[in-house]
Fold this protein.
Amino acid sequence: MIPSEQIPSSDQATPTTEAAANQKSVGHSRRVFLFKLSLLLNGAVGAVLAVPIVGYLLGPAVKKGSKDDSWINLGPLSDFPEGETRLVNYRNPVTTPWDGQTGDIPCWVRRVSGSTFQVFAINCAHLGCPVRWFAQSELFLCPCHGGAYYANGARASGPPERGLFEYDHKIDGGSLMISAGRMPTLANQARVEAPLIQLEVSGSAARLAGVEQPKPRCSSCQT
Amino acid sequence: MPDLKQRGIAVYDWFERRLGLGAPVIEAAEHEVPSNTSSWWYVFGSAATVILILQVMTGVLLALVYAPTGTNAWNSLQFLDHNVTLGWFLRAMHGWGSDFMVAIVLIHMAQVFIFGAYKFPRELTWIIGVFLLLMTLGMAFTGQVLRFDQDAYWGLGIGASILSRVPLIGGALVDLMLGGPIIAGPTLSRFFALHVFVIPGILLSLVGLHVWMVLRLGINDWPMPGRLVRKSTYVREYHELTEKTGIPFVPDAAWKDAIFAAAVMLAVIACALWFGPFGPTGQPDPTIIQTVPKPDFAFLWIYAVLAYLPPSIETPVMFIAPVLGIGALLLLPLLSGEGEKHWSRRPVAVLMIAVIAVSLGAFTRLGMYTPWSPIMNAWTSDPIPTAYLHDRTPLERAGAIVLQNKQCRNCHSIGGAGGLRGPALDAIASRMTEDQMIRQVLQGGGNMPAYGNALSPSETNALVHFLKTLRGNDLSPAIDASRKMALSSESQTAPTGGH
């Protein structure tokens, strides 16, 4: 601070400084009012600004209206031998140019017979890790926490509380189509509980199906 | 020479006249602290700050090269590792710095807890510290995502799957986290923003507040058994202690901080040189499913807990336990802001630290070797020990082939090789009878899937015959006591029935 700018200090109480103080306080209440007004104005500006910001931030969650799922061609039926379960990759219908490999999504296609298919998500119903199919033991196994599923996607053991997620599918012009586009999670996949008891099975299989373990849908293998 | 010194002082004065920061900083550095705070136990906070500075510096340097896009992030890490001079070292320093930071923040927290330093008047310092811990873990998780490899991709999948379990708004939260319908480029972009702008901003401001409060309230005096904290007297007592025994923080107490900080930095450098950077593991290509995703060290214990929680209570535990845990940490200083500080008179506090440390350690250890996970290639890579095939009938040997082909080894070990999810089978016949084995194989139960559909009757027969030969070191085979009784009662009734 330059000395010449210094205001006389208050300990030299003179009539002139008292008058100055009076003069100062005259404008004080007006300035306080104006300051409060400016706060209000800035609050209003902030509120207006918050609308686009919050809208921008919530964008991905609000966009629900436009459905991300669409029909994807997985290939001709001849690609899928009956009784086999195969890994098929598709390009997600919604991607950005900078997604790279992450836009390629795998899924498990099981052709039960003829036109009967099941298409399972790669993501374990427990915490989303990639399940692997083991044709010999007819199980899907998850590497993360050891979830296991039967050939038909039903829960076999481990931490998952339900079977594998399944995509809607249809056969169109000799090709298998699935409806996909979102990462399947417990939030967007309807809960499909496998029936605990298969009433139509007979003999020893009926006895087996009756115990607490949910059995795969199969009536011919227990003879 | 004296001329040069005077020049230097003049330059300092020129800046000091304009900035005015030197005097208050020197005053803060030299402020008096009770001499009993000059302890090797009081060095963790400053060490965490030093590592934070290291993380900021190495982070900025990495950001000079890193490409935060889905297409190129992984490639740019490879580029850093192999094409940029010392890029691998910078990555290693940043990665090891992260592990050290989490560890030191936890040790700092445990020390503060054990020493009762969170009590009056330092409650808010502790509460801000809790948020600092959360921010540190947030940095560790988002940093792992930026290492955009397979672990990062499936780690995001785990995160999204956890969020999807939130009632009602789970789906919206997943969308917010991923920034789109799938884990892809936009997901990485938002984690980049979190890791580089949002969380560091919060972290640095909170560290500023934390340090400011330590300076303002004084470093916690060394606890003495029986010297109780009372809100009415504590501040006066602390000032008396400082006046009586005070030493300037710099240099009388700070030299220990400085030496420990240097030791920690050397340790980070040594780890970086010796072990190198973390990953990246495989490319973030979800179509490569031959992967065993694992989180970084700091989160292994959560990974383990998620494997052991029963499905029925998993979702509630996931969301209630963190709220309770963080809530308890935040409320701790408000509920026990007064009283005894010394550990010898706070057995519950000591016990809690011990239990938490042992639990975290045990779950982390489990997370390192994941006994719950099937070993996906055990059935093709681990042969059956020849001793188990010696002197066996053809049927029993056929059973050994069934055991191998049906991937039983992915979960069961034989001869020390194979998965750990199910019990080892080396002595299975000493624990289970033939009937029990057949039932268990066909129907499953416990943690085992049912193999009724995957095995033909002849395969089951062969398998069980092989299993019946596995009796460890020639233990006696399991017997069905009830059958024996039924047989003996039959033989008793038979003569009276006589033909």
Q: What stands out?
A: Residues 40 and 46 of chain A are 10 Å apart (CA to CA). Chain A touches chain B through 68 residues (CB under 8 Å).
